[in-house]
């Protein structure tokens, strides 16, 4: 059973995922107010990870190739830090112990996290003494806790690391994915105090990896809802999902075969992502370099050929990585040679016209 020794406490982690403006926060507020007999705690990533203005910078760097990687690194670092805070909360709840700040990470991040918990009545500041570390907090009495994490979670890997956390501590796990037309998400987002830039939402919509219970056994306990009609959502279906998660805690993995298989899949996805990103950058750079030297019609034909070669390369790379094979040759070097071979005839024809 999902119970800490002697405490009788049960815990479930629930992910609310989807595009900004899909209705996640609205649904989270309703879940909290509709469950007076159970503790439903909501951790909204955007409220904890970083102040609003810095968060916007990080979103820009994550979704755009026009900014440097420093902000993206900070954004990822703060996500990892928040997950560590959540792990401390899981342990403290199951063991009926004080919630203690990790040794690493910023004090500001920890204070925002504690502020989120205090605002929902889960913790109260602990009185420092000889036995209580500084920056600790005491949890209020609760038997069952449904910890709802409100974030976009648009990559499968983001969700899987929370699943691993739930499994590590024999807790329940479930997902609620809100799908919503990107046009409506943009309209809703623009009314926010700190809206996410439109291009970032469009970027996420193109790359979001929706839960796939048929493909991933760990995503079986998932619910997909239409966020375009929030009033039509039956909250009881989500509450039933939370109950199922509480009643069916995960079992810690006994061997590392599943982990190795997933790590290989993540590695393959990263290779494809980096190759796609590099190819797009090289195509853009090439088109800018050749712009003005050939006609508009030739530019269109060239762009089509380059995109075609990119698709072929990515498909070949997808096939080899799916089999666990990794070519020693850098795919970007191969693609650069292909680009040079495609561009050269256009430049040669132009030089012949002026000779």
From TrEMBL:
<dbReference type="InterPro" id="IPR013641">
    <property type="entry name" value="KTI12/PSTK"/>
</dbReference>
<keyword id="KW-0175">Coiled coil</keyword>
<dbReference type="GO" id="GO:0005524">
    <property type="term" value="F:ATP binding"/>
</dbReference>
<keyword id="KW-0547">Nucleotide-binding</keyword>
<protein>
    <submittedName>
        <fullName>Phosphoseryl-tRNA kinase</fullName>
    </submittedName>
</protein>
<dbReference type="GO" id="GO:0000049">
    <property type="term" value="F:tRNA binding"/>
</dbReference>
<feature type="coiled-coil region">
    <location>
        <begin position="296"/>
        <end position="323"/>
    </location>
</feature>
<dbReference type="InterPro" id="IPR052648">
    <property type="entry name" value="Ser-tRNA(Sec)_kinase"/>
</dbReference>
<dbReference type="Pfam" id="PF08433">
    <property type="entry name" value="KTI12"/>
</dbReference>
<keyword id="KW-0067">ATP-binding</keyword>
<dbReference type="InterPro" id="IPR027417">
    <property type="entry name" value="P-loop_NTPase"/>
</dbReference>
<dbReference type="GO" id="GO:0016301">
    <property type="term" value="F:kinase activity"/>
</dbReference>
């Amino acid at each position: 059973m999902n119970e800490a020794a002697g405490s009788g406490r049960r815990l479930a982690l629930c992910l609310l995922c989807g595009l900004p403006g899909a209705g996640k926060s609205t649904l989270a507020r309703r879940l909290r107010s509709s469950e007076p007999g159970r503790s439903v705690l909501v951790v909204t990533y955007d409220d904890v990870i970083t102040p609003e203005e810095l968060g916007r910078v990080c979103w820009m760097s994550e979704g755009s190739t026009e900014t440097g990687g420093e902000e993206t690194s900070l954004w990822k670092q703060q996500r990892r830090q928040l997950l560590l805070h959540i792990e401390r909360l899981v342990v403290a709840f199951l063991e009926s112990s004080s919630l203690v700040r990790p040794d690493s990470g910023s004090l500001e991040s920890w204070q925002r996290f504690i502020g989120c918990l205090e605002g929902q009545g889960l913790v109260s500041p602990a009185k420092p003494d000889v036995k209580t570390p500084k920056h600790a907090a005491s949890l209020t009495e609760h038997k069952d806790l449904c910890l709802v994490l409100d974030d976009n979670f648009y990559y499968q890997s983001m969700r899987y690391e929370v699943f691993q956390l739930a499994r590590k501590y024999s807790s329940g796990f479930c997902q609620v994915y809100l799908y919503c037309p990107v046009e409506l998400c943009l309209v809703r987002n623009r009314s926010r105090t700190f809206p996410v830039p439109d291009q970032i939402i469009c970027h996420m919509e193109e790359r979001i990896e929706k839960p796939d219970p048929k493909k991933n056994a760990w995503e079986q306990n998932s619910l997909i809802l239409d966020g375009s009609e929030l009033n039509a959502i039956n909250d009881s279906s989500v509450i039933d999902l939370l109950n199922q998660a509480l009643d069916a805690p995960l079992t810690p993995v006994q061997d590392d075969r599943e982990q190795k298989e997933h790590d290989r899949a993540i590695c393959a996805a990263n290779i494809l992502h980096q190759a796609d990103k590099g190819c797009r950058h090289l195509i853009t750079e090439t088109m800018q370099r050749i712009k003005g030297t050939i006609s508009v019609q030739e530019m269109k034909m060239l762009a089509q050929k380059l995109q075609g070669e990119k698709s072929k390369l990515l498909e070949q790379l997808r096939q080899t990585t799916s089999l666990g094979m990794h070519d020693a040759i850098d795919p970007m070097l191969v693609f650069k040679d292909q680009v040079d071979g495609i561009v050269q005839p256009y430049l040669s024809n132009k030089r012949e016209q002026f000779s």
